[in-house]
Amino acid sequence: MTIVGGYGAVSGGVETQLKAFGRGLVTRLYGQNRYDTAAKLSPYMPAFSETVFLATGASFPDALGGSAAAGRLKGSLPGPGGRESQFLSAIPEPH
């Protein structure tokens, strides 16, 4: 099981509860901020297509609407929030 987000987003108490289920290893994936976390999560996402949507990350509704469109088109919505170059440069090259 993987927790996505630092301790400010998902508390240590939640992590402890998940570990108590005893269903294997509980790991945590997070970055310095939400944009860095999104970039670190990207290698684990399946390559659906070449379609990528970007959201600002500044408010909830932009990602909500964009995620529906991305899902319909089998794309992704990483949400770098105006930091596209930071996000894109953090994504590892495909192997």
Characterization of the model:
The chain has four helices and two strands. Strand 1 (2-4), helix 1 and strand 2 (27-29) form a beta-alpha-beta unit. The chain has a two-stranded parallel ribbon. The chain has 95 residues and is mainly α. Helix content is 39%, strand content 6%. The model has no long low-confidence stretch (mean pLDDT 76). It has a domain at 46-95. Helix 2 runs parallel beside helix 4.
Topology:
Elements: E1 2-4, H1 12-20, E2 27-29, H2 34-41, H3 60-72, H4 84-90
Parallel strand pairs: 1-2
Helix pairs in contact: 2-4
Brief description of this entry?
The protein is built from four helices and two strands; from the N terminus they run E-H-E-H-H-H. The chain has a domain at 46-95.
